[in-house]
Amino acid sequence: MKYYLYNPLANNGIRLDVPGAELLDATKTDYPSFFADLAAEDEVVLIGGDGTINHLINAVDCEKLKNKVYLLGNGSGNDFLNDIGEKPGKEILLNPYLKNLPTARVNGKEWKFINNMSYGIDGYCCEVADKIKAKTPGKKINYTSIAIKGVLYDYKPGDAVVTVDGVTREFHNIWLAPAMKGRYCGGGMMLAPGQDRFSDKLTVMIYCSRSRLQTLIAFPKIFEGKHVEMTDRVTVIKGNKVHVKFTRPCAAQIDGETVLNVMEYEAEL
User: Fold this and answer.
1) pTM
2) How far apart are CA 170 and CA 166, in angstroms?
């Protein structure tokens, strides 16, 4: 039997219906009990995006799943699908991608992540988007316009100490400091164009600039992954264990899920 679980929070609340299928609310499903009760031949389809996958990988031990699990993309960002070269609207087998996942540690908690653990203007964008959703439920969120406004006016870049596999460096005026399992972040930004999600290492990409105008001009290049060519502003480091400590608290995001008041984070693969 095939079970369909949908995320009512995905795609700005726009529900994707599957003709003839009974849809279960993923946010109200006890995943450990649900999977424990399935027969080995049963299959599960998740309807949603990056946050839906993140919910799964933090609810059950995906290394021990006995069932085939698929993703039917219906998210607003779809960074995972972008990374594997797929588009929303068809069922993609997830199991090969749910192994050897990295762990993020932030604010005393641990999360697995499928795409990235990130601090910077992308965390700011998620924080602003959450406020818009709370104030106007169902309103479509334009993350690009939020990011541009942040670059021009609201977001304040900070300083950080970054340690990767025991080697420590200091950075100033940081706009982005993600640890990447995949290439994409923030609904289409190719922050780590050289990252392979099946690699045994994460990619840390630090973007620094004192100039808002310079950052705004460079912004379109991030969507193409060409920002890494700007070596005067961008540092790329690969490693297994990442620790980033900031000089002031700011919002971070894990696979698009907001974490507030972050001073430091660890990511390990």
Assistant:
1) 0.90
2) 13
Reading the block at residue 60, the tokens are 């059950």
CATH, domain 104-268, list 2.60.40.420, 2.60.200.40, 1.20.950.20, 2.60.40.10? 2.60.200.40
CB 192 within 8 A of CB 223: no
Strand runs labelled E in 88-210: 91-93, 103-106, 109-112, 116-119, 158-164, 167-176, 179-180, 184-185, 189-190, 202-208
Q: Which CATH architecture best describes the domain 2-99?
A: 3-Layer(aba) Sandwich (3.40)
131-173: pLDDT as tens digits: 998 888 877 788 888 989 999 999 999 999 999 999 999 999 9
Structure tokens given for 225:
């992954």
